[in-house]
Structures
1.
Amino acid sequence: MKDCIQVGMLGLGTVGTGVAKVLCQNGASIAHKVGKPIVLKTVLVRDVHKERSLPQPVQVTDKVEDILNDPEIDIVIEVMGGEEPAKDYMLRAMKAGKHVVTANKDVVAQHGKELFAAAEEAQVDFLFEASVGGGIPIIRPLKQCLAGNHIYEVMGIVNGTTNYMLTKMTQEGLDFADVLAEAQAKGYAEADPTADVGGLDAARKLAILASIAFNARVTFDDVYVEGITNISSEDIAYASELGYVIKLLAIAREEEGRISVRVHPTFLPSSHPLANVNDVYNAVFVRGDAVGEAMFYGRGAGEMPTASAVVGDVIDAARNLYRGASGRILCTCFEDRPIQPISETKAPYFIRLLVQDQPGVLAAIAGAFGAQQVSLNSVIQKRKINGCAELAVITYEVPDSCVQLALSTMRGMSVVSEVRSVIRVAMD
Amino acid sequence: MKDCIQVGMLGLGTVGTGVAKVLCQNGASIAHKVGKPIVLKTVLVRDVHKERSLPQPVQVTDKVEDILNDPEIDIVIEVMGGEEPAKDYMLRAMKAGKHVVTANKDVVAQHGKELFAAAEEAQVDFLFEASVGGGIPIIRPLKQCLAGNHIYEVMGIVNGTTNYMLTKMTQEGLDFADVLAEAQAKGYAEADPTADVGGLDAARKLAILASIAFNARVTFDDVYVEGITNISSEDIAYASELGYVIKLLAIAREEEGRISVRVHPTFLPSSHPLANVNDVYNAVFVRGDAVGEAMFYGRGAGEMPTASAVVGDVIDAARNLYRGASGRILCTCFEDRPIQPISETKAPYFIRLLVQDQPGVLAAIAGAFGAQQVSLNSVIQKRKINGCAELAVITYEVPDSCVQLALSTMRGMSVVSEVRSVIRVAMD
């Protein structure tokens, strides 16, 4: 047996640099835990001539073969991001008998099946704790600690950028555009913020969580996605008045044998444990038949938190290697579960309308809802905007299709000037 | 290879019944995850003639040998509770080559070293996720997901009874005695509530958490313990006024190479993630050099949540068995770390005194604090009780010994009628 476990890393950006730091600064205790030292041998970079301040000497290369064909390297860490060539490199690493640890939610959410099949075939580990929730332990707890449960629901705040923005809008009454500009200035949001504010990043993470929670393959394409770009400070003020906060939630729920998977802004009761998760923090809330409710909270992104998750996986792969137990826990998607179309999902809705300020309008609106079997739980009418009355309602739980039909009717009514907001409400 | 994995269980109380239910109701998916079915074969009970409604037929026996000597049984679940004979049975099970899963905090906190040594010797698994935090995944996340971190601090609400009581006292302004009576009536507190309200239960769990977090053996005897019996509704009202809640915290913190481990009521800032953990819920908050802050929240006790953790461990042991990787992760206490005496631990303190209502008294009190280098951060004097003035102060961070000396001086002063409360304050 070799006297150390050698690791190659693909990528040396933010997360890769964090991984190098953690492996170095906690190397002694990691060696104790594994039984032998873990050594970062070679790192794939784009430009081998760039100045880098690494905590330890490490070989850099711009040829992936220097890692994939190195028989001394047992574990490959993929922290390049993006679908290709990351996926191709991971598949080649597995074929070469190397264990793969990745932080790449894009690849896992879209190509999990292919990667798991390759890992199974090669009998290597394929670990991806860092792909969801940054440093928060969530994949392993779901796959192992909660493995005895029938999971009904996983609900999470899994995108730090949007949570930071919604927190700012809530705490400081700011508008979306101002908060986005601030988040970009602070480096919390990208120059092109679509993946975050459009909910796509959260949807990828949800596909991964749902696949594990429900033992069934759920991909990014299965997830219904609405972002936060239409959320206004008025919506947030209404939410607060009614005892809610608005959060971008990623929700996976079992509904009579089908799975509902969706990312959308949500009115969440202020008393819900997720309602206090603010700023760039993430949290995942799980309901299971045995555990009841559990929640996992922490930093969902960043150099060191993500590195924490990557190194945890590397240690696990190394322990398996040491024990001859590689490929110990692979794909757990052994069920086929149909996806519930968004039109059939049920929720209460918060709806905000501008209507003509004249007698009989409320009756007409109530009639349009009633015609689609949408009952109203509460109605607030308290202010005028440009001569119109603003009407805010919360419905009882109804199928999305009924709400859409009612809204479509209302959009055609002369007394309705504008449908301003349509936001789902989470029940306790 | 056998076509199923057979399990024996010691004890069929609340948790044992839950384990039997979970193994039965989720048996099909558990079999998929492990690769073969897990079958509960034999259960040790006190009275074999008692009527029981179990979800599946199972052999009951009052002879432990029927389990320990049964070569078909691979995994033994210990849910009897108490130190003996539970410890003896677990050691014998390991010697017989059986993997052991336990929910027994008493044995793990006091005899972890002996049990780990036996597991190592026999190369069997020894798993105890259920011993801390009921259903909350915390042991495995610390041992695996966060294994790359240097952990600085673990701080938890790990006793549901006291958290329920403090929540009631806070939300309803009730007194300790009334809340205790109610908790006993609801079955949340035992007839003899000492282990809970005295902090002993929390101290056992803290010893387990600290051992894992700091890679060093910490036992129950190392933990400084104060319970909540002296907490009054007045203390809670002051806390609330000052922006705090009072929680019974189990705190393990690294202090310059030594470990401070203590359980005591604590003024916790209302903005802290643990401050919103109410009722019977538990949560463990962890700080590490890579992950930053993480928190694990859920039901800390009860039939099904505890069974969730036990069955998660059984599945893990079964996966190891299937892969020939038993004993994959055993004792991680490879360091020796001295314990910091409580007298040297530092904290700000909330102190409430009854003093004579006359000129010069405040100066005398301030002088007594100052003589021990205890500086005051805030002083509140606003009401009289029995002709005395009530004085509430919060100090800056000071060593416990200085506070005790100052208090001892004050207790001897004629102008001080009574030292009513001395409660540590957690900093953000």
Note: The two ends of chain A are 54 Å apart (CA to CA).
2.
Amino acid sequence: MRKVALELGYDGSQYVGWQRQENGRSIQQTIEDTVERLFHERVHLMGSGRTDAGVHARGQVAAMELQHTIAAEQLVRALNANLPLDIRIYRAWEADPDFHPRFQAKRKTYAYRFLQAEVMPPEYRRYYTLIRGSLNMEKMQQALSSLEGEHDFAAFRSAGGINLSTVRRIDEAVLLDDGEGKRIEITGNGFLYNMVRIIAGTMFEIGRGKLDPSIVEQALQNGQREILGPTAPPQGLMLMKVEYDEKRI
Amino acid sequence: MRKVALELGYDGSQYVGWQRQENGRSIQQTIEDTVERLFHERVHLMGSGRTDAGVHARGQVAAMELQHTIAAEQLVRALNANLPLDIRIYRAWEADPDFHPRFQAKRKTYAYRFLQAEVMPPEYRRYYTLIRGSLNMEKMQQALSSLEGEHDFAAFRSAGGINLSTVRRIDEAVLLDDGEGKRIEITGNGFLYNMVRIIAGTMFEIGRGKLDPSIVEQALQNGQREILGPTAPPQGLMLMKVEYDEKRI
């Protein structure tokens, strides 16, 4: 059986998240249903990881076993012609039969986007979080830098996470300009449930002067979720990139 | 009677345009209905100009006569608390009783935004136009520059325009980076119906090498709409700013 990998993006605003659920339409299900409609084949589309309701993706990677022999390039066109415009396939390719987009992911990059304004410009409302008042960017960058390296991120996890180990390696955590807005961009070898949204919520408190940048090191030491800031809302979050060993894909 | 002016933004995706129409919900009507619900007063909200279905605004200016004595600052909060999130009021102020947002507008700035990619990333689909393949930016900028000055823009107008004179003054027409995308930004003393979208459609043809930059000067000379490019789609267009004599506002 061939295994086809997809690189895809989506606007998560209208979905219950990546994963198939009882309470509404998911990205995964929408693509699986489209494949079935096109090729009369029921596939299971495995993603590199779940994204929650309202969270977006630019470079999600997913894979499925497919019997149909359609060429990868044509598959991209066929899917895009039949998927809603809030899901787009950028690329498809033949993957190793044992390619597993979740277990074999080496690194992921997430962006958390925010806009500083008094009133939210409508075109940003689905993709950015509004921050009123000023933020101290230097303190935020200082706190972000202290996340880098291998640490126990137990404090940076919401209840409901499924991971046994809470040790992760962050390779880079930076504050970047993003047109009119800004983004926190974090690359690491894995992320716990809500980890990036808790980091973002904590950074906003640090930027406002309500928390000291040293709170990050404290939380990495003592594992206490409650000393950090709130979980920032989903719409600011975007999965930017998933990286694999080259031979795997 | 007091006259209250508003500076506002909207995502035009879900509207038939600025102006009240039979065939669907307009921005104007949505705001007028909200004022009526809040203050039990039927107002007429006059905008600086119409925008078509799917066209957005960042800095539209509008004004209405209002009997209610609510302070301008509170009016902003009351409207934003009751309007849908795709319409936002940025500012309200007491205007001269004879303030007329359309007749007294001195300059307007429009942006036409586009993204060069093979597949449209979902989060850009409502606000950018997708351009596949490469564009020659130098030729586009050269053609844009030739629009500057006072000219007869008769060729740059769609049927349905209401203006008698087709002479307008363009103060600046430039190509700018806009995050991942780009934008054509044009400031002038007035714009004919679909003028910016015809300019944008023509620039894309020039960028692709299908039209020569000199086509702009030809069209300004001979007034022939048909030698220019197609009217670019509405979603790339945004009314950025409307300027008035300071004493007027």
Note: Residues 107-243 of chain B form a domain with the Alpha-Beta Plaits fold (CATH 3.30.70.660).
